[in-house]
Structures are given as C-alpha cells and as structure tokens.
Design brief:
about 325 residues; Rossmann fold; Alpha-Beta Plaits; nine-stranded mixed beta sheet; globular
C-alpha cells in the first residue's frame, strides 16, 4: 500500500508543491519511521559528563550529539526505562526531541538577562532557557492555558529552576503590560504540527486542515508582533514552529517585518555541524523578501520537522 494514501489528499498536494519529488519521498519515508529518542542534560543540577557516566553504568548506550554537547541520543533501552531512573526522577535530564532544543540555542540566553517565553507550557524550552541562563536573571514563562501551566510549574520544580516567573496572560496583549522590557523573547507558537506527523498514527494528523492553518497563522502573527513590541531595541526575538506549512512559517515572518521594516532584521542562523535548509522565498504566487535567512529542519531519523527565525530589533516598534 502507498503510505501516502493514509494522509489527507490536500496535505499531500501541498507537500508535493513545497518539495521536490525526491524530498517528498524522503519526507514520507521519515514520517513512517519512529524517531530515535533524545534528551538533554539539566545543567542546573549536573554536568553532561557525569550524567553520561551514571547512565552508562546502568547499561544505557547513549551518543553525544555533535552540534550540542549537552544533548544525547538514546541508542539502547527505551524511554520508559529512562523515566524509571533516579536521574530522570530527580530532574537531571529532560526528554526532548533534538529539533526542539534548537530555538533556545539560537536565542542564546545569557545569565542575568530578562527573557520572555510567550507561549511556554509545558516548559521544554523554558527549562532549557533557564539552564542556559545558569538559573539566574529573569525568565518570564507565559501561557494562556491554565491547565497546561500545571505541567509547566511541575517541570520547573523538578528541574530546580528558580529564576522563572509564571504568568497566565493573553500573549497577544503582552506588549501592553511590558513594552520594550525584555532583552530577548522566544515565540514558540501553537501550530499545525506537520513536522510531528507519524503516518502510522492517525491521531497525529486527524485534526489537520487548511482552515486550521489559517486560524493558527492569525494567532501566530499576533503573538510574534506582541513579543517584538515587548522586546527592547537591540534585543533578539526567536520564532519557531514544528510545522512545515509556509503560512505558519515564512508568511508570518514576512508579515511581521513588513509592519516595521525599518525596525527588524532577520538574521542568519548558524549552527556548526548541523545541516539546516534555508527558508523558502515564495509560496503559491507570493514572494517573500525577508525569509532567506530563516531555517527549516527537514524531518529525519533523529529530528522532527521544524522552522526557526531569528529577528534582531534595531529600532522601536511602539506606536508614537
């Protein structure tokens, strides 16, 4: 059976337009396989070399990731067995797909900075940012879902994070409360999650529709615009999704820069030892002037599909 037959025909058509025939076949092949499990060291509590020793003693075969020394791929045993270790229970590690670690690394948070995570729950990137800040400075983790905030708070506690303030506000209106206050902002938005589709699991794509993409794109624009306005001049905003849809990726970046082109610069993303695709510069007769420096991660055995953009704010975007 052709595995593409299980997916929505409209999704297939879009992917065929987005990718070459070879890439399209590679995409289907990747989305029909399980990703190798990965995790990162919680450097707030332990160094990676020590964690590696402790897990190796227990029979885990783990491989350090070339482009990020605090990340590992689990080569033997299961995620369930990893969650049964004292290391996991004590918050010494965080199970996370490798792609999901990249936005925090691109943001490059520093100790003592003021940082906003505008759609934070359940906290995989929040806890990562806090660790990169060495648990210092001021990290604001916001999410509109009160229910998901419980998981965020639980993760912060387990990881030993003490530099983070949790808020339950509409992200779209955030800039009104704290205009140009933060040094940096992460905008990891709710999305259609095409990069996480697994062909053998209909749950991963049963809610997919172009109508949903349009609805999400609108929300994503407002969240990004709000984060831009809440970031100081000279600051950095990182936008990320786990979808392949241009309407949620390049189109959102194009829209936000066009609002204030004098104030925003989309910077090149440089990740040594990691191959990234360039963002696309056109889609369905639309041309994009500001997206060539954005980055896409093509799904593979180790990584989910992802999109990342790094924006530098060089002038104020607040209303006069």
């Amino acid at each position: 059976m052709n595995i593409s037959h299980t997916l929505p025909p409209q999704l297939i058509d879009r992917w065929k337009e987005l990718y070459s025939e070879k890439e399209y076949q590679q995409l289907l092949d990747s989305l029909s396989k399980k990703h190798l499990p990965s995790f990162r060291t919680n450097t707030v509590k332990i160094l990676s070399d020590e964690l590696e020793k402790q897990l190796t003693k227990q029979g885990f075969i783990i491989e350090k990731v070339e482009w990020y020394s605090d990340a590992f791929i689990l080569k033997s045993k299961s995620i369930r067995e990893l969650t049964e270790t004292e290391e996991y229970k004590n918050g010494l590690l965080y199970i996370q797909n490798l792609s999901s670690m990249i936005p925090s690394l691109v943001l490059d948070p520093q100790p003592s900075e003021k940082i906003l995570d505008i759609a934070a729950a359940p906290g995989s990137k929040t806890t990562h940012i806090a660790a990169l800040m060495q648990n210092t400075g001021e990290l604001t983790a916001n999410d509109i879902s009160f229910k998901r905030l419980f998981k965020l708070k639980e993760n912060l506690k387990q990881m030993g994070i003490i530099n983070t303030k949790v808020l339950n506000l509409h992200g779209e209106s955030f800039w009104k409360n704290l205009p140009e206050y933060f040094d940096k902002a992460l905008v990891d938005v709710p999305c259609s999650m095409e990069g996480r589709i697994h062909i053998d699991d209909p749950k991963t794509y049963k809610d997919w529709s172009t109508k949903k993409i349009k609805q999400l794109s609108k929300l994503q624009r407002y969240l990004l615009r709000s984060a831009v306005a809440a970031t100081r001049v000279g600051g950095t905003i990182v936008y990320s999704t786990c979808t392949l849809a241009p309407e949620e990726n390049e189109e959102v970046i194009e829209w936000v820069v066009e609002k204030t082109p004098h104030a925003l610069v989309v910077e090149q993303i440089d990740m040594p030892h990691l191959q990234l695709q360039a963002g696309i510069t056109s889609w369905k007769k639309k041309k994009f002037d500001y997206t060539k420096n954005t980055a896409r991660i093509f799904p593979n055995e180790e990584m989910e599909g992802f999109f990342i953009a790094k924006i530098k704010k060089i002038a104020s975007t607040l209303p006069e």
